[in-house]
Write a structure and sequence with these properties.
Layout lengths: L1 H34 L5 H4 L4 H16 L9 H38 L3 H31 L3 H5 L1 H6 L1 H11 L1 H16 L7 E4 L2 E8 L3 E6 L4 E5 L2 H4 L3 E2 L7 E9 L5 H14 L3 E13 L4 E9 L2 H22 L15 H7 L19
Antiparallel strand pairs: 1-2, 1-5, 2-3, 3-4, 6-8, 7-8
Amino acid sequence: MESALRPILVIGPAVVLTLIVGWLVDRSLRSVDARHPETPLWGLLRRCRLPLQLVLCGGLIRGAYRATHVAHYAGQIGQALTLVLIASSAWLVVRIAAAANDSVYAQYAATSRSVPKIRRLRTQLTLIQRIFTAVVGVIAVASMLFTFPELRTVGASMLASAGIIGIVAGVAAQSTLSNLFAGLQIAFGDMVRIGDTVVVDGEWGLVEEITLTYLSVRTWDERRITMPVSYFTSKPFENWSRGDPRMTGTVFFHLDHSTPVDAMRKRLLEVLEQASEWDRRAWGLVVIDTTPTTIQLRALVTAKDADDIFNLRCIVREQLIDWLRCEHPYALPRINTAAAPGHASAGQQRGMAPMPDSSDLGPGPGAR
């Protein structure tokens, strides 16, 4: 009976003390967050309550488990508690770093009015957080492995051969390492940021995620294109959000030579004034080319970003085509099959016989 109560007397107070400390810490953070609403760090640190309780509980039990006098399993229990303590400590460190990361981004996004700078900071903080998490994870796993006596004995030989292993691993993971350095170059070189509008391999979309090895682009039709980050450091691509996001768009029309260009220009201005996407920077309608059958007109419009310019081009195209169809249908392109005016009289003046009418022709060979 006494041997059964000893573990309860050790574990019970540790769990109760852990719950009390976790509740007090959470209440203190909530109080500080209410007094300082301009700093979101204190509210974000409340997410560290569970790993903090695990660290505290694991440490208390790890220090007092020998009082239970479980001699047969003392080594295994101590080993398991050490592993739990290392894992929970790594989890706590990652959570604290994530809270600080999110706090810095939230404060900067609330005070800055520059969208490109906000995107740049978000990209950099995201990659820094991923690198920090990976480093902490590697250290935690290595620490857990070295708690086993078998690995301690081979530690010296592993360190002696670390140089050769590093060379072999570097050659084997050459592409992975290149993507890793490319990710750092993208983050701190401000080449592309999360939320940027890009065109890669003829696909238009928004940068949705940037990791240390790959980049995800969400296209306009909700597809996801995953590309290695080394692509953006080795090949050209279009970034419509870099610098000034304002854009100029064009709409082309192939119309008949009789098109009333001046009236169409006035109609274009009316359409733009009714469209909320137009930023009123510039507009225009000019004839840029002519062929024997049509003329080519170019409508020029401007908008504040890529989304608005696409919508505005669709509006202009639809409204002007509808206006031409209703008001000036003769301006739409068509194939001429009739003879040109004055063609018959010009042929008679030159002594050419006029073309016979179909009624003057006799019955065909198949007629009966």
